[in-house]
Amino acid sequence: MTDQNNTPSQADDKKKIVVSGIRSTGNLHLGNYYGALSKFLRMQDDYDCRFFIADLHALTTNPDPKQLHESVKNILAEYLAAGLDPEKSTLYVQSDVPEIPEMYLLLNMHVGIGELMRTASFKDKARKALGLTGEGDEIEKEIIGNEKSQARVNAGLLTYPTLMAVDILIHHADFVPVGKDQEQHLELTRRFARRFNSFYGVDYFGEPVNFNFGGEALKVPGLDGSGKMGKSEGNCIYLIDDEKTLRKKVMRAVTDEGPKEPNQKPSQPVENLFTLMELVSEPEVVKHYRDAYADMSIRYGDMKKQLAEDILKVTLPIRERILDIRSNDEYLSKVVRQGAERARAFAADTLKDVREIMGIRKI
Ligand code: TRP
């Protein structure tokens, strides 16, 4: 047997371990679907997959008890509706596995405040929390603040990478399918693993790597003409969007005044629509509109109608299943109970070893 990277696996009967998580903030959108979920679906059969909902990570920004709980349920229903199979993969909620927070405490003893403060995602989020707009280097001073300052950056945000490393290392993951924005966290995970091994003189943790089926990490553009699809208004198509909402969003997508000369390079907003089309439409449909753009006969209205139609072909069946699954509390709780049980068994083994290695032993 060979894995997707064409390296023979050590033991044929032992599947490589895959771990990935998604934060429970809001609903899943097309960016999540094509960026992450579709990869998860392709990995289910060939790997030992453990996918989870990172609700503890979600708490690091805008904690809201009601929203958090709803979000966890929504995302679980969306995972299942998109095709993740609880019989093939271990699907669980992060907070259902208490071994994770315990190991997080232990691993934090080997993590430097400085390296955490230098992490790009922390700097971004800390800037937001403090209401800073500039790119200045004064951020450390602002974070420390003084007794009178009201603004505060929570410590959970700082130690986000420790928690993420534990999510991964507690399973001894080989592969971690994530987007480009998570590369730095994965790099830290490997560094923490090496440090733990060398500090205790053991060869305990391996070094997990990203996984993209040999391709580049995919970037799904948004509808507002700017960067990638995210949760900001007007930019995002959710799997749960109904037909009317979805059509309206696509029809309102930002374009330009049309090509000014034959064969010109499309502007960013128009190229974004082509990129979306390449994800959802047949190649001949994409070619038809590319050609129409090149010979300047394109009508953006027609193109958007077609795009909406083809997105709906992907999302509507998923939406139907989401609504169905979301209303079945009994099924949802059965799935997470079973998932937590399996995840806890793996996690408990690792935690037992880690405690032993660190010298936490029964008297
Ligand atoms: N930080 C990831 C994100 O924001 C979510 C995440 C948490 C994760 N723990 C993980 C991803 C472990 C992969 C593995 O997308």
Describe the structure.
The protein is mainly α. The protein has 2 domains: 17-111 and 159-220 and 329-358, Rossmann fold (3-Layer(aba) Sandwich), CATH 3.40.50; 243-324, Tyrosyl-Transfer RNA Synthetase (Orthogonal Bundle). The chain is built from 15 helices and 5 strands. The chain has a 3-stranded parallel β-sheet with strand order 1-2-3. Strands 4-5 form a two-stranded parallel ribbon. β1, α1 (30-43) and β2 form a beta-alpha-beta unit. Residues 1-11 have low confidence and may be disordered. It binds tryptophan (TRP). Tryptophan (TRP) binds at residues 19-21, 23, 54, 57, 164, 167-168, 176, 178, 182, 185.
Topology:
Layout: E1 17-23, H1 30-43, E2 48-54, H2 55-58, H3 65-82, E3 90-93, H4 99-108, H5 113-117, H6 120-130, H7 139-144, H8 155-158, H9 160-169, E4 175-176, H10 183-200, E5 209-210, H11 243-251, H12 268-280, H13 283-294, H14 300-326, H15 329-358
Parallel strand pairs: 1-2, 2-3, 4-5
Helix pairs in contact: 3-14, 4-9, 4-15, 9-10, 11-14, 12-14
Tryptophan (TRP) is lined by residues 19-21, 23, 54, 57, 164, 167-168, 176, 178, 182, 185.
